[in-house]
Amino acid sequence: MAEHASLSQQAIVRDDGLVWLPYDLPFLADAPRRFAPLSQQRLIHNAALNAFSLDYAALRQLHVINGAGVALGDAIVGLAVLAQLHRRYPQLVITVYLSPHTPAHVQEIYALAAHVTVKWLPLPVAAIQNTADAVWVDLSDFMFRPAFNQLPMHDFFALSLGMAVEELDTATRQNAWLRDIRLPALPANLAAGYTLLCHQASTPLRSMPEAIRQHWVHNWLAGHASPLAGFGPDLAPGWHDLTAWSRTLPHFMAAIAGAVRVVSVDSAAVHLAAGLGVPCEALFMGIDPALRVADYPLCRALQLDHEGGLRGLHHARDQQDVAQAQACWRRWLDATVQRNQ
Predict the structure, then answer these.
(1) To the nearest whole percent, how much of the chain has pLDDT over 70?
(2) Does residue 122 have a cis peptide bond before it, meaning omega lies within 30 degrees of 0?
(3) Which pLDDT belongs to residue 241?
(4) Superfamily, domain 195-340
């Protein structure tokens, strides 16, 4: 988030007339005082500032600053909503403007989305001009908009794009656009019928600690004859480490698509599993599962933070949060071990 509240929840314009994201500030050698909120210089649709609706049947161009975000899970869901617009309004050309500092694996999902054209920031502020058949939407910094932690994700993106949530169809709500992506073959030594563990999330607070992972892997394999795959070293018979093989996002997607079940702390893997039609057990630490998996019939979501002390957090605020998360993981592991005895 931007260092100053006035530079949050919308794109920012540097004093040389170039548009960036608040996300870009740590990467730029510029003082925050050089930037001003985009809304001070251009009329642009931004649901964080004012709700709006758009008649997409009358439009030929949609320009979205920040696209569907810089996190993989967010991008999967946001691109699903944009895919519905593309299907329903074939005349609509959708252009997304992304930060050049977007993580490489997130850039991959945009490259796989044939329904959008990607352009890279910075963007001259003079290029932003709403016309009768072309509109601009600012989705910058949306992780810090209150609605993002209050609405199911597909609903959030629909409203942020000027759509009614009632317009969203089942294919969109289940990320079905992912099924059109061509995936590589699985490793020859990976037997069919495996369960896939995705123990790493985008933040340490939501990731499964390594000691918990190792204990859970050994306990799971002791109680199941089928193989278990994941991303980390382990000498347990039946464990398959896919780290070296899973070089690209399509490889990661193939690992999910080939599994009979996914166990994940990573919301991106949960969104991918839903789109690829794979049953999933999603483990959430603080974030409300109902906001992330509301429309995934094959997903069983668990909230590990029973006391609610970590509610809504993406990052630990202090060591006390870290300790609480560790306690949540130990309680989950103990309950899992007891069920398997």
Answers:
(1) 98
(2) yes
(3) 95
(4) Glycogen Phosphorylase B; (3.40.50.2000)
